[in-house]
């Protein structure tokens, strides 16, 4: 079986579906009832995902679960790298990172990935206490701007796809009409 990488659109579709069902999927409970609910929700995600016209390659439930786990792991890695970068520069100017819209969608679908537990005895405590008040609001504003940009980008892609589909349908109808006459 040939492996096909997920496209930007496919990842965006998956994260948006999971955002709606996230409370069940991301629940930490592992009892029989919770596992059954998760299984049913993953089957719903599987059916809805594969029904989307933008999906180029049909995926199994297991593949979708693995993709979601990989996306969350990538987001955790980015969070860790950002924290390390802050500590490395002493809170100063950080190295520029390329913005990833998918990671914003992952954070929106699974906000618990960015939970930070503080410790006053940790080597980062002095920095965190000093910068925490002003940076939290800045981070929140930046996050909102990124989420808005991601939504606008997805809407633009959807409109382009609609135009392409309408054009293809018009060409098809014209070709059919030409063949019929």
From TrEMBL:
InterPro entries, per the entry: Myb_DNA-bind_5 (IPR028002)
Domain Myb/SANT-like DNA-binding span(s) in chain numbering: 5-79
Pfam families: Myb_DNA-bind_5 (PF13873)
Coiled coil: 133-160
Record keywords: Coiled coil, Transcription, Transcription regulation
TM region(s), chain numbering: none
Assembly with partners or alone: Self-associates forming complexes of several hundred monomers.
Role of this protein: Involved in transvection phenomena (= synapsis-dependent gene expression), where the synaptic pairing of chromosomes carrying genes with which zeste interacts influences the expression of these genes. Zeste binds to DNA and stimulates transcription from a nearby promoter.
Protein name: Regulatory protein zeste
Annotated organism of origin: Zophobas morio
